[in-house]
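Notebook, p. 212. Picked up where the previous page left off. The plan for this session was modest: take the two constructs that came back from the sequencing core last week, fold each one, and keep the raw output in the notebook itself so nobody has to go hunting through shared drives later. Recording the first one now, exactly as returned: residue sequence, then the structure token string.
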Amino acid sequence: MTRLRLTEMFFSLQGEARTVGWPTVFIRLTGCPLRCGYCDSEYAFYGGEYHELEAILAKVAEWSPRYVCVTGGEPLAQKGCIDLLKALCDAGYGVSLETSGALDISEVDTRVSRVVDIKTPGSGEVDKNRWANLPLLTANDQIKFVLCDRKDYDWARMKLDEHRLTQTCDVLFSPVFGRLSYRDLAEWILADRLPVRMQVQLHKHIWGDVPGH
């Protein structure tokens, strides 16, 4: 029987990626092997409580959502995450997975929109990127770059060309909240005519940097 360690489950508006703005159930799994310098969910590194898969599904159903997002921490650090994602898809939800890109995504159900975060130099974890994940991506997936500064932007732009990422799926450029100016990033994207989507973490503009939103 599948059991997973959860930090929290909550119902909120999706603040990022393709379904931004949609009411979404978030399932935050506990634990992460990375330590990005700008991480806003450090509280999910430790602790948490174990829940049976069936109990998680029952709780999700109480909210009657259209969308469910499995996040962390790093969700794929728990083996049961694969079973959870499949079960959510089988239940008919639109499912997304927020993953660091450091772990193998090959076993993730193809119905899931995998949001793969490619770690930039500014994250402090650039050496953890699993480049073997990129050929596995489809148009259903999304790639995210969280950018600290101009150096991160230039590095990400280079990776776009090197791996032809925009020909594979949607690419998201996200400024680190409170560190990189929205206007600066917007102007860089426009000046270079990059075919990427800029995102600004809607939930933080509504509720601030508060867990559970």
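Okay, moving on. Second construct, recorded in the same format:
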Amino acid sequence: MKTAYYIGIMSGTSLDGIDAVLADFSSSSPSVLHACYRAYDPDLRNRLLELHLPGHDELHRAAMVGNELAHHYAQAVAQLLRECNVKTAEVAAIGCHGQTVRHCPQPGRDYTIQLYNPALLVELAGITVVADFRSRDIAAGGQGAPLVPAFHKVLFSHPQVHRAIVNIGGISNITDLPPNGEVTGFDCGPGNIMMDAWCLRHTGHTYDNNGSWAASGGVIPALLDKLLATPFFSLPPPKSAGREIFNLAWLESCLSGDELPADVAATVLQLTVASIAGSISDHFPHVTEVYLCGGGARNGTLVARMRTAMSGTKVELTDSLGVDVDWLEAFAFAWLAKQVMHGIPASLPSVTGARGARLLGAIYPN
């Protein structure tokens, strides 16, 4: 390629907004040159939430939201380039994940849907777009997620230290990075998705800042046990999850109705901690260092309880490895776009369960 600059755009299960990064892959140590965040307004967030379930005229509504998202993505691209004085011609491609509204990798109903309009984004941004990263892996028998472990391997593998990278987005996922051996990983349960939904229901805020509300409550052991009894947690990897499994209806089906909201918030936060710590203990017992990333890594209560649950294991943020926790996933999709543009398979069958490594993503040339 003529340039080593790529843009990565990620809008995750939390439905909070758009992360965008301008990445430089010109050296053996990739770097983020600039990043920006654009929040979803409440109306767009609600319309995206509604599209997670069947509804009236949903095909039309989904197409219109896809067009709207393309404009938001283009604005994020323009902001990035303007703020760091880079021209569109200097960017090889945009890796755009889109907004997932359905993720069903189970046999017999194996599909995934991300809303966006890559063709429109090309027209608006004037840059080649790589999109549809998950479908090929699912077609090859995989889960189509998580896709970032391959990039974690590039950035964070250590020749002597057994590390795990934990992304706490809407859904939590783990990447196992042994010093010798195969990289593996899987979705392990809800990250912020249930904490955010419960917080919005009872406080009107889209998230619990620093976990302070959850910290004011007490964990309800019986409720935690009931939540952890959900079949997903006992499934062997490879596995992936989304709002199809973890949603308010699921949580409310486990409640007696007389719990204090703050106690439920504390329990839901502990569910995220327990599912991560338990997964590492069960599947990667030799891990000595755990690095957290994603929005949940900014939740001080969550991080403190992770350290308590994993006493004896080093638990830090990816910031300490030189990559800001807020931008890592968008950075990964810039890298995935680069792999596609260079014709290099970027999937890990050991993570997704696909029949083999595949070239992930469809190219929409400028």
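Notes on construct two before I forget. The chain has a mean pLDDT of 96.
Flagging for discussion at group meeting.
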